[in-house]
Design brief:
The complex is a heterodimer of chains A (129) and B (354). Helices cover 22% and strands 36% of the residues of chain A. Chain A is α+β, with helices and mostly antiparallel strands and 129 residues long. In chain A, the strands form two sheets. Chain A has a four-stranded antiparallel beta sheet with strand order 2-1-7-6. In chain A, strand 3 and strand 4 form a beta hairpin. The termini of chain A are far apart. The termini of chain B are far apart. Classes of the chains: A alpha+beta (129), B alpha+beta (354).
């Protein structure tokens, strides 16, 4: 009997492939969970805010110092001040959920909530109203 | 040993056949794009493509097409070489304006909706809406000086809102406002109507699964793709109009090849003496309509959904319900100011929500 037959080698290769794949899928599904906000200025991503730190505070973009954001302890984020005429950005209120977004159109600033977690089928693809 | 080998081979076979099945269909990755430049609002696209470049190309095709409509339907901006709705307004009482057939189509459609909605939806209300717009902007920027427009002023403006004074010559492709003080405001329909036209265009380009939102006018093309290429309905979350509620979201609706539009009172408003005045104006009272906090319309055509969301917002609940129930394929949900939700007859069946 030889030490390893051809079929054994194939089996070993398959087992190795499956384990790599499982590890990969597992990592994608359950790895890095975490909500974060992306803030865009004139269509460029200029800031990413981790929403899971439990910290709170106010900040602005250097490109638009008159627009103020507030990060809350509960992981929500909002426009709280703006020099725009309609203040629709401020009235959009606090954004909590993945898929929520708000914008200050006159200042060309856009913010959206994302997650590194894979979306479940019931996770909204967009939130309106 | 042989048995074990067989088991492994079977597993391997299953595994490979699974792979093969996926490989035949090129892998579609989910992408999202937003832009802020059109219709004075946020446009958001969610779709699938084999590569980011492919998705960017499709998004640009969408944007270019939507921009054509933006330039035609705006009442605020001039564009060189284009006669748009602002041009028609500027030429009110002066002369007919030759326009693109897409303007003629929008205006004819809007006239039809005026009749169907018993006058609650009226694109000839511009002179009244202009006044509210001005007072709202002043009030937002100088809250201590916020005032309501005098009723006398509103009533005077309301004398110039007769929709029959919009003279459309289809053959010559011209529009003329007979009343020099009349102004068109297509804000309650233009976005939805444009979205429907651009959705048609995307279908022609062979796009099968795309979720479009232009300022909350949502149009779902197909459904969303699962990992194995299967499709399921898109999920549209609808915000709770009561922003103080701990429940941020009112409901989620599942839609495939349908449009969803929500009209509410919680973003475009201003405050006078501690009271909020929002932007949906009842043509009869000339004041903000006070029946609801939010109305959501679901039907296939995005233009219809947009127009109906205004009509269903202005009508009192009994009239609004029978109005929506009389139409096939249209469902609605009204949220009263108390928070109570009222559904059209088929809402819960037609639109699985959770």
């Amino acid at each position: 009997m030889k030490f390893a037959r051809k079929s054994d080698i194939i089996i070993i290769a398959i087992v190795a492939a499956i384990s790599v794949l499982t590890w990969f899928i597992y990592g994608n599904l359950y790895g890095h969970s975490g909500k974060y906000a992306e803030i865009y200025y004139r269509s460029e991503l200029v800031k990413t805010v981790d929403l899971t730190t439990g910290e709170e505070g106010r900040f602005s973009l250097e490109q638009a110092p008159n627009v103020v954001f507030q990060l809350y302890k509960d992981g929500s984020i909002a426009f709280v001040q703006s020099d725009c005429p309609d203040k629709i950005c401020v009235k959009s209120g606090r954004l909590h959920r993945v898929g929520e977004y708000a914008a200050c159109i006159p200042n060309r600033i856009y913010i959206k909530i994302l997650s590194e977690e894979k979306a479940g089928p019931e996770q909204p693809d967009i939130i309106i109203g | 040993m042989k048995k074990l080998t067989a088991v492994f081979l079977c597993a391997a076979l299953l595994f490979c056949s699974g792979c093969g099945g996926i490989k035949k269909v090129p892998k579609q990755t989910r992408y999202q794009a937003e832009f802020l430049s059109l219709f004075d609002t946020i446009t958001s696209l969610v779709g699938y493509a084999e590569s980011k470049d492919d998705f960017t190309e499709a998004s640009n095709q969408f944007r270019d097409k939507l921009e054509e409509y933006h330039k035609l339907y705006t009442i605020y901006e001039d564009f060189e070489g284009i006669n748009n709705i602002k041009t028609i307004n500027d030429m009110a009482g002066i002369e007919p304006v030759k326009v693109d057939r897409r303007i003629i189509e929008l205006l004819e459609y809007s006239k039809e909706q005026y009749k169907l909605s018993r006058g609650t939806f009226n694109i000839a209300l511009g002179s009244v809406l202009e006044i509210w717009h001005e007072y709202r902007e002043t009030g937002i920027n100088n809250p201590e000086e916020a005032q309501l427009p005098p009723m006398e002023l509103l009533k005077k403006a309301a004398e110039h809102t007769n929709i029959d004074d919009i003279i459309i010559d289809v053959e010559a492709s011209t529009v003329y406002l007979k009343d020099p003080l009349m102004r068109l405001d297509v804000g309650a329909v233009a976005k939805g109507y444009a979205v429907e036209r651009v959705a048609e265009y995307m279908l022609e380009l062979g796009i099968e699964n795309l979720l479009i939102s232009v300022g909350g006018n949502v149009r779902a093309i197909g459904g969303k793709l699962g990992g194995k290429g299967e499709t399921s309905p898109w999920v549209v979350g609808i915000k709770n109009p009561d922003s103080n509620s701990r429940q941020a979201q009112l409901m989620s609706v599942s839609v495939k090849d349908l449009s969803v539009v929500s009209s509410g009172i919680y973003e475009r408003y201003y405050t006078v003496d501690g009271r909020q005045y929002h932007h949906i104006i009842d043509p009869e009272t000339l004041m903000p309509s006070e029946h609801y906090a939010q109305v959501t319309i679901i039907c296939q055509d995005s233009g219809l959904a947009d127009a109906l969301s205004t009509a269903a917002f202005i009508m009192p609940i009994d009239e609004a319900k029978s109005f929506i129930n009389s139409m096939d394929g249209v469902e609605a949900c009204w949220v009263l100011k108390s928070g109570e939700q009222i559904y059209s007859e088929g809402f819960e069946q037609a639109v699985p929500s959770f």
